[in-house]
Design a protein that fits this description.
The chain is of the alpha+beta class. Helices cover 49% and strands 9% of the residues. It contains 7 helices and 4 strands, in the order H-H-E-E-E-H-H-H-H-H-E.
Length: 169
C-alpha cells in the first residue's frame, strides 16, 4: 500500500464531496486537462436503462455521453458511502470523456482512465481499483444483475457541462 500524497488527499476529499453530475464532470475535465493536456466542451449527459454489462457509452461523433441509470441506481444502493458512489460516477464519466476526445480504442481508454485515477487518487482508492479491473470487483453484487434490454426512455441531465453553455436556454 502506497501512502497518498498531499495532492491525492485533496483530490480524494473533492471526490468525496461531489454533489452532482455537473460538478463531477467539471473535476473530470480539469484533471484530464492536467494529466493528458486534452479538452473539449459542450457535452450532454443522458441517463438510460441499458444492459447491466454496460456502464455507459459515448456516441462517436456526437456530443452525448449515455450512462446506465440501472447500474447507477444499483451502485448507489450497494455503495458503502457517498464517496464510493462518487468514485464510480467519476470513473465512468472520465472513461467516457476520454472516448469523447476521439480515443476509440477501448483498451487505451481503460489504461488512460486507470492512469488518471491512480495519479489523482492513489492506487488504493475505490475509483482507481474500479478503473484497473471492473466495478464488479468492488461490488460483486453487480454480477447478479440481470438487466438485458435497452429502455426506450431516457433522461437528459439538466445543467450538465454548464460552464460551457454561453447561449440562452
Amino acid at each position: 500500500m502506497t501512502v497518498p500524497t498531499e495532492e491525492q488527499m485533496e483530490f480524494r476529499e473533492r471526490v468525496a464531496k461531489l454533489k452532482d453530475f455537473d460538478e463531477t464532470f467539471e473535476l473530470v475535465k480539469s484533471v484530464v486537462l492536467q494529466k493528458f493536456r486534452m479538452h473539449r466542451a459542450g457535452l450532454s449527459l443522458i441517463l438510460q436503462m441499458m444492459p447491466s454489462n454496460l456502464g455507459a457509452y459515448h456516441i462517436l461523433g456526437s456530443n452525448a455521453i449515455v450512462m446506465n441509470s440501472y447500474l447507477l441506481a444499483a451502485v448507489r444502493k450497494i455503495a458503502g458511502s457517498t464517496e464510493e458512489y462518487n468514485s464510480y460516477m467519476f470513473m465512468v464519466l472520465a472513461h467516457e470523456y476520454l472516448h469523447s476526445l476521439g480515443i476509440v480504442d477501448e483498451n487505451t481508454v481503460r489504461q488512460m482512465t486507470f492512469e488518471l485515477c491512480n495519479w489523482m487518487l492513489g492506487d488504493e482508492h475505490t475509483a482507481t481499483r474500479m478503473a484497473k479491473q471492473d466495478p464488479s470487483t468492488i461490488y460483486p453484487e453487480l454480477r447478479s444483475l440481470m438487466q438485458s434490454q435497452f429502455s426506450k426512455d431516457f433522461q437528459v441531465v439538466r445543467n450538465f457541462d454548464r460552464k460551457n453553455q454561453t447561449y440562452i436556454q
